Predict the structure.
Amino acid sequence: MSAELLANKRLLVTGVATEDSIAFATARQAEVMGAEVVLTAFPRELETVRQLVGDAGLRAEVYPLDLTQAGEVDALTDTLRSRFGSFDGALHAVAFAPRDALDGPFMEADPAGIELAFRTSAWSLSNLARLVVALAPDGGASLVGLDFDANGGAWPVYNWMGVCKAALGSTARYLARDLGPAGIRVNLVAAGPLLTRAARGIPRFDALLDAWATTSPLHWSDSDPAPVADSICFLFSDLARAITGEVLHVDGGYHAMAAPLQPA
Ligand SMILES: NC(=O)c1ccc[n+]([C@@H]2O[C@H](COP(=O)([O-])OP(=O)(O)OC[C@H]3O[C@@H](n4cnc5c(N)ncnc54)[C@H](O)[C@@H]3O)[C@@H](O)[C@H]2O)c1
């Protein structure tokens, strides 16, 4: 993609934890494409992420943000407005669920953990959208989130995170409805499995990797987030100016197959 694709765009990227993070790959690619990038990290990981960003030679400043907290979004909005002015988009790359909500008997998971998973992984898109609205007073901004598969089927694992991703998809569509008149677009990228810290926290994640090995028509690399990052950058760009409420599958074509193409 063109090095100029995101020239003159200022983007907020949430969800950097490690150099494997989809958010980290996106930030790096967005800078290559000409964007000014500002990052957020979960507060207790702030110094680690600043170190990571500095070591990688990224120009982005890093701010703390817990996206489950409306007050933190309000405070960050004020900070970013006075430091930078307006923004042209934001990436929501945040999810969390306790282990018992990701695997094991579905009906036995602790409801308190499920509520936290929903607040972190689905409602937080709406929380971040408030920041985008406030920092894009002239409209024209792009909010992008990250889904998994998005066909709504049940997986061998994933459990309540699957429910949260379904809720994230619905949240994105309602946000697209409400923010479209202001020219703000809301889309999701449904990525295939990538070996990030969040993915390693999913028990039996190998079952998902095995599914891609037998069913994705295109070769899928679980250690290369670049195709996902490129597609996020496309959705940030003006090339995607008429796209909202969409789920863009960047999964090697897995979602379009009805059955495995080769034996396990
Ligand atoms: N890795 C995959 O296979 C895959 C596939 C499809 C979609 N996704 C989605 O991509 C997104 C990014 O995940 P990743 O795979 O890059 O893993 P990751 O572990 O690198 O990123 C997850 C991020 O969520 C952050 N986070 C958790 N709770 C938070 C909170 N309350 N406030 C702010 N930040 C919080 C973590 O600090 C971390 O930076 C998630 O939404 C994930 O569900 C991942």
Q: What stands out?
A: The longest strand covers residues 142-148.
